[in-house]
Amino acid sequence: MKIFLIGFMCSGKTTVGRLLAPLVGLPFIDLDREVEKRVGPLLPFMEKNGEGAFRELETEVLDALLVGPDAVIATGGGTPCEGDNMERMRKAGVVVWLKVPLNALLPRIERAGGDRPLLFGLKGEELIQRVRELLDQRIPIYDDADIVVKGELEPSAVARNIHSVLPAT
Asked: Does the predicted TM-score (pTM) go above 0.85?
């Protein structure tokens, strides 16, 4: 089975994915790291080529994972929102949304130190406004996930919660 972890940036997809993978006996793959294997760090790539080029490449890498072996896959925050990616992920496996409320996301994003390309250089009210805009765009798509879990809990608890509600294979 393929398990796709979706959620906003800093929602814990990578951390939870690494903890979930051994629970379900599958390898862990981080989609952003797979993209970086092709182009290097994402921020310089996006600054040079734009978000559209990044989304095209991200979808190419996702295409390969969709037909590849079963795994726990942490997607980028915008991955499900591009084209028909959400629908294709749902057909290929189980999509799990790590739902983290805004008040829990903001400190995580601030701790990440501005390394998120879509938020680079933003601080204070400008950062909060941009996060709200992106959430408003993405939540209706995230709502189509097969499973929704509270992502603000301790990562190991989130992984156990996901494991406990996954369909039997």
From this structure: yes
